[in-house]
Amino acid sequence: MAGSPSRAAGRRLQLPLLCLFLQGATAVLFAVFVRYNHKTDAALWHRSNHSNADNEFYFRYPSFQDVHAMVFVGFGFLMVFLQRYGFSSVGFTFLLAAFALQWSTLVQGFLHSFHGGHIHVGVESMINADFCAGAVLISFGAVLGKTGPAQLLLMALLEVVLFGINEFVLLHLLGVRDAGGSMTIHTFGAYFGLVLSRVLYRPQLEKSKHRQGSVYHSDLFAMIGTIFLWIFWPSFNAALTALGAGQHRTALNTYYSLAASTLGTFALSALVGEDGRLDMVHIQNAALAGGVVVGTSSEMMLTPFGALTAGFLAGTVSTLGYKFFTPILESKFKVQDTCGVHNLHGMPGVLGALLGVLVAGLATHEAYGDGLESVFPLIAEGQRSATSQAMHQLFGLFVTLMFASVGGGLGGLLLKLPFLDSPPDSQCYEDQVHWQVPGEHEDKAQRPLRVEEADTQA
Amino acid sequence: MAGSPSRAAGRRLQLPLLCLFLQGATAVLFAVFVRYNHKTDAALWHRSNHSNADNEFYFRYPSFQDVHAMVFVGFGFLMVFLQRYGFSSVGFTFLLAAFALQWSTLVQGFLHSFHGGHIHVGVESMINADFCAGAVLISFGAVLGKTGPAQLLLMALLEVVLFGINEFVLLHLLGVRDAGGSMTIHTFGAYFGLVLSRVLYRPQLEKSKHRQGSVYHSDLFAMIGTIFLWIFWPSFNAALTALGAGQHRTALNTYYSLAASTLGTFALSALVGEDGRLDMVHIQNAALAGGVVVGTSSEMMLTPFGALTAGFLAGTVSTLGYKFFTPILESKFKVQDTCGVHNLHGMPGVLGALLGVLVAGLATHEAYGDGLESVFPLIAEGQRSATSQAMHQLFGLFVTLMFASVGGGLGGLLLKLPFLDSPPDSQCYEDQVHWQVPGEHEDKAQRPLRVEEADTQA
Amino acid sequence: MAGSPSRAAGRRLQLPLLCLFLQGATAVLFAVFVRYNHKTDAALWHRSNHSNADNEFYFRYPSFQDVHAMVFVGFGFLMVFLQRYGFSSVGFTFLLAAFALQWSTLVQGFLHSFHGGHIHVGVESMINADFCAGAVLISFGAVLGKTGPAQLLLMALLEVVLFGINEFVLLHLLGVRDAGGSMTIHTFGAYFGLVLSRVLYRPQLEKSKHRQGSVYHSDLFAMIGTIFLWIFWPSFNAALTALGAGQHRTALNTYYSLAASTLGTFALSALVGEDGRLDMVHIQNAALAGGVVVGTSSEMMLTPFGALTAGFLAGTVSTLGYKFFTPILESKFKVQDTCGVHNLHGMPGVLGALLGVLVAGLATHEAYGDGLESVFPLIAEGQRSATSQAMHQLFGLFVTLMFASVGGGLGGLLLKLPFLDSPPDSQCYEDQVHWQVPGEHEDKAQRPLRVEEADTQA
Q1: Is the pTM of this model over 0.90?
Q2: Residue B440, number of CB atoms within 10 A of its CB
Q3: Average pLDDT value for residue range A126-141
Q4: Cβ C436–B283 below 8 Å, yes or no?
Q5: Contact A436 C278 (CB under 8 A)
Q6: Does the beta carbon of A72 lie under 8 angstroms from any beta carbon of chain C?
Q7: Engineered SS bond to A308: which of A36, A260, A343, A357, CB 3.0-4.6 Å?
Q8: C16: alpha, beta or left, given left = phi > 0 and alpha = psi -120 to 50?
Q9: How many CB pairs under 8 A join A and C?
């Protein structure tokens, strides 16, 4: 039984020991391998060589802060919509992201910036680590409420590695472009989580169904997440694009795409809603699909019209997904997708990858001019035609789906290890399994009121 | 009756069709007219010609993100104070702003940056569109709870056009200075909304009076909005001022003005409060009046002392407005002003315009030196005296009040079109008219507790 | 009695008069002394002399906005955890910070930038004033719920002066380095507040004990504060460090330290928690200790490994403090520390100062190269050895503890002045003493439902 003494003892030690082990191992690896890069190290950076204006720090750091806010505030609060799982949603977001930041600094460092026996870190490392944390949190959304914190840390341990390898294959081996991560972040994170959720399928989840909805104020907390994701998404997609017109264009395209996906979402939500009423789930999620769908193409010459169209399409597809596909996903495919990440990240991510195929295939020297070198360096250097780049982009999507599926499957098996603490079917979506939870309201009986206060209160 | 089948069918289609039509029309206009500007287009931007340091993107984009956060988080959550209208407040903010961003890109584009048959967009377009969305949301505050989403979209359709024309008349034809929009944003948005609210006057609104107040946690959500408006207002006023000392001075003046309006608000709120108690409505709103009142003059040589004085005055006037003038506005002038935009944006906006008249009239070549060219180019070029500039500023206020009043009147007539869905008098300030609303709390009876949980919970 | 007419009359006037007096006096001092600095004044700033790239504004302003968000959103909402003190927590944060910003502009201006009979203000003044406001809010955390707003303003009046003097002694007389304020902000603010709380010790506070805990949604509001503090802390520590590698390295170290303190906090919270359950108080607070502990050393060559280790240590010490030391602090030392500032700011601040001693003592010309001049100018100029710098750092901690203790004692005596309005022992942690508070929920009985709504709601 869940409440038996031995289980409690196991639970008591599982999370602490795993945290201590992971933090200890990470610290040792940092000690051996991680060093400041030449823009960060006091001795390597020379003011005379780098005027302030040249220091990339000032062009990347504000975007980093926006990405950082998006990952923690955005993902953290978006998942607070469940009525009794707010502590876990925001708390485990914090835990997972804090671990993923460190672990992906190591993984990505070994793959991308390992030279002279060391990993060299700087502002780009922080942005890349935040991106990876974003993918982990997307997967978290698929299994939200059905996994314990120790399970989640193990999921992150595996996912961060596969995220790093997949990204390396795409960006460095295949020469795929994916600045805002339609493939590397959204498609990967979503299908990793969905396959993992499939492996962890709970036929008896019905027992916790009454806790799976929202309450009035939990939906308002979730809107904090939505709005932070919405407002900072332009920075997210632009954070690592080429300085100058590249960042500028990426932000602008994302801004338009999000605006259109919002209108598309409201239209479809009212159209399919009971008695024409809007559904908060759609607004909280589908309105963001515009940011996902231009993740690959927003740095390209998508055109403002292209951004609007893509965003609108993503908003509608995502809303329809919530309404019609999520129930089928559970009943037919046995995938229990708590936050509907298939609708917000899965489908819009794949659409975004395909949009990238299309826009890359249409690239010409005329349209990009000197900018071709920063957007499609292999085409600019004559190593590839636009069609070839498009084919590589398409292959990148295929690779991502493979990594995500195999990884999610492995992750599911890992998380099924019998000694790992997992909430019983009747205790899913419930903070009390993991947290000391205060009552919903103060005990009014205990509070003595003065006369004039009693008057005011009435 | 509101719940009759035919009404429901009309409601079901009105919002979706309007969203689809507006988004479709906007997309077509974008396809025909909107192009990247030379700082955004891959082919037009040449790295060799523009060093990173010269790229205005880096000097405007962080301010844009602050403005963006202010508009969505700030206005969105500030209006969540109503006990049963949180979904609509934050949801319709989202819808209105997303539409206004696109539509005002077109309107402002035709007026300001139309050449060669195209509108050219970049980071300044995004900031300008966010400013316009701010004005629309101010008007929304005046009619909050009494209008349906289709009505609000039509309001935005009209208001964005008039906002654009008014701004064009002031800034380009009259040579008025209004960097932070005391006139173009706050005065315009407030009086447009108030006149519109007057036309939509509901003598039977009493029926929804019990829903017009706040509850404890809705007031805390509203404070999220207040704080985001407060902290990012310096960026709002400075977003489009001259690079260098101009932005610097504008931010500093706004910062001081807000600090003083906060102390003024606390002083007055306690002074006029029942038994000396503070009123959350005052703190949520009047403390922000300092940002409004220096909207015109913060880029000028207002002096830190001037900023403090102006902010303090605005905070006190605004608080007194909430306490004494709002009831009169409803009883005598038949204007039902849900959020009290007259107190936060109307009066402080007019005061801000008059302060701009005063500070412009005092401008001298000595006080501004080389900076005169960026603040008052027409005075610097000898085309105008300071007194003449002051007169133009005053005339700009007059023009704004005219545009806002006539526009609000037209808007009111438009929103009264009988086929438009509007909540009945007894269903105002109620989310359930527009949204599928979950219960306030989980059904505790349904939740089985394990023994040790029952202990913890007790 | 608290509710007697004469007391009410006194209360009615105390806060308004004090606000008006402080704002009036501040405005007069601003009029006489405060002027724009040469980067802010229209006439003193010459575009020709300062290219955009040189204007420090663009390198400091985004950090300022992050600090500003951290102080207001972060501290404001972190303290909302109390079930019936949310209005006061966020409202008085606003009031205190708004006053502290102005008052510390004057105090710090007289000490640091007074020349030619004037204080010269610019973006650095805003950052410095926000730092001081942060220290005041830390002290507020120690006395939260037990003091009235007039008392708090007097506390700020005194604390801002002592903060300024202490900072001046450390940074300018002793040549101590403390970029992120482990000593000047956290240690000072914490021990000032703790000693003050000691002087105000309430033996009968038991009477308000039932209101001292959180409720479910107040803990979620507090997590908004936590996350904003967490995400923007890198900017906080880096805001005034040397442009270039200095800011870069400081942000990176803080980022790693926070990630490690989060894992340490989760590990220890589960380890010491009842039945292995996590405690929200630990996550809300101790996870932030990583930002405090590197406040002094993050600009130094701490190394990423050093940052991880320091952060982890701070997270564990802070969590253990909440669990074991806070009760002792109250029972043995008669210090009632509402927010546990001793655990979040006190101990980690002292540890941070000691870490600064260590890292400064290890400084070599090899490790810092050209960067030595910006981090340890006195060592670079040969005026001091690394060991001597370390001794000065240690002496700085001692001085800070002295200023904080004596200041907190004086502050306690000041706040005990009998005519000052203070909540009675049975009315601590209660908003209704200071605010007009609405009910917790709408009156459901009053709300008429249409038939289909009743269906939806069920």
Answers
A1: yes
A2: 15
A3: 97
A4: no
A5: yes
A6: yes
A7: A260
A8: alpha
A9: 252
